[in-house]
Design brief:
Belongs to the thiolase-like superfamily. Beta-ketoacyl-ACP synthases family. By secondary structure, the protein is an alpha/beta fold. Helix content is 33%, strand content 18%. The protein has 13 helices and 15 strands. Strands 1, 2, 5, 6, 7, 8, 9, 10, 11, 14 and 15 form an 11-stranded mixed sheet that branches. It has a two-stranded antiparallel ribbon with strand order 3-4.
Length: 421
């Protein structure tokens, strides 16, 4: 079997996968629920939501850190996903390679804000507060609000030898982390890498901010029915939490040590969209460019994709633009390519979404089952797609295109294959 691709670069294999979402912890629990069309979206109980327009979320509320703040939960999601992936790959003790972590912007948690302010005293309250913050022996607050802290802790926890890199490219972050790992191996800078996407930031502030952008679903009455990608009555995405990790390795290295090849990353494509902070360019050219770039990087044309894991957020704007981009690239064939959105079940996991959906895409090829797009009860006649409605489907899938189109014009697409050849 060839060890290099059509451009003479090392083929990048996946030898470990880890997943944590609102559906459960671990690949098996997630895959069983996903293919059964089960929703992990439920009513929010973590904090008061009486005056919020949206009161539902795909929260991960079963972990020890679920009530400890966004930074703590993001770390635990990343740690659990990485532990599963590294264990499967055979690197439970340490990984000789870099770490690329997709994570949300870090903010000081409200518990810490209140704790700091409670230490201030009048009439010199501000000065006292600054002094307490500067001179305190408790460095937890400082460390947990640094963007690189989670990656540093993961590197220490798993013996990562390369530089830990933290990145945030909005909803494309998880896919970008994978892309960076692939590129490091292709350039010969590493034999293997760990790519992780994690996000535990379904906070009250996040709900308010996305609500102000009119991005969130307000279908609160039946939470599990709120996320309905590509449906005519879609009204916004459902914010969620989760994490996923992939162990990436040159095919040559993986085969030499007898590792199980779970799939290969064939191509990566990215394209920035400078049109608007949240809206896509009306002609869809950046998304079209990202898809075409990923296909070209993989050495494939529009006939080479068997299944598309859609970004599929359930917002009126995104689903329309994703359909435009795909129909432009694939033409009439797009009506025959199965395309489904995992977000119909797990919600939108933001920084983690691209990594989680890449992991599900790899499982789709390995298991020969395409997860459904649930809640597809009112088709949008303007979006003619085979969305694998409501029930999973058995199918032989050799190649997958996984799309990640983020706010701020961050577009990243991955092409994955079941086999290297």
């Amino acid at each position: 079997m060839a060890k290099t691709d059509h451009q003479g670069r090392p083929i990048v294999a996946v030898t470990g996968i880890g997943i944590v979402t609102s559906l459960g912890a671990g690949k098996e629990a997630n895959w069983e629920a996903l293919t059964a069309g089960k929703s992990g979206i439920k009513r929010i109980t973590r904090f008061p939501n009486d005056h919020l327009n949206t009161t539902i979320s795909g929260m991960v509320d079963y972990l020890p850190s679920s009530n400890s703040g966004a930074a703590a939960l993001t770390y635990e999601l990343a740690e659990r996903a990485a532990e599963e992936a590294l264990g499967q790959a055979g690197f439970a003790d340490e990984l000789d390679g870099p770490l690329f972590l997709a994570a949300p912007p870090v903010e000081i948690d409200w518990r810490d804000r209140i704790a700091l302010y409670s230490q201030a005293r009048e009439p010199n309250g501000i000065q006292t507060l600054l002094t307490v913050s500067r001179d305190s022996n408790d460095t937890d607050i400082f460390e947990t609000t640094q963007f690189g802290t989670i990656a540093d802790r993961l590197a220490d926890r798993f013996g990562i030898s390369g530089l830990p890199v933290t990145l945030s490219t909005a909803c494309a972050s998880g896919a970008t982390a994978i892309q960076l790992g692939v590129e490091a191996i292709r350039r010969g800078e590493a034999t293997r890498a760990l790519a992780v996407g994690a996000d535990g930031s379904a906070t009250a502030e996040a709900l308010i901010r996305f609500s102000l952008l009119s991005a969130l679903s307000t279908s609160n009455d039946v939470p599990e029915k709120a996320s309905k990608p590509f449906s005519k009555d879609r009204d916004g995405f459902v914010i969620a939490e989760g994490g996923a990790a992939l162990v990436l390795e040159s095919l040559e290295s993986a085969e030499a040590r007898g590792a199980t090849i779970l799939g290969v990353i064939l191509g990566c494509g990215e394209k920035a969209d400078d049109f608007h902070r949240t809206r896509s360019k009306p002609d869809g050219s950046p998304a079209i460019g990202a898809v075409r770039a990923a296909l070209a990087d993989a050495g494939l044309d529009e006939t080479g994709i068997d299944y598309i894991n859609a970004h599929g957020t359930s917002t009126p704007e995104n689903d329309k633009m994703e359909h435009l981009s795909l129909s432009t690239v694939f033409g009439e064939r797009i009506k025959q390519i199965p395309i489904s959105s995992n977000k119909s079940m797990i919600g939108h996991t933001l920084s983690a979404a691209g990594a989680i959906e890449a992991a599900f895409s790899l499982l789709t090829m390995r298991e020969g089952i395409i997860p459904p797009t649930i809640n597809y009860d009112n088709p949008d006649p303007a979006i003619e797609l085979d969305v694998v409605p409501n029930q999973s489907r058995k199918a032989e899938v050799k190649t997958v295109l996984s799309n990640s189109f983020g706010f701020g014009g961050q577009n990243t697409c991955l092409v994955m294959g079941r086999d290297a050849g």
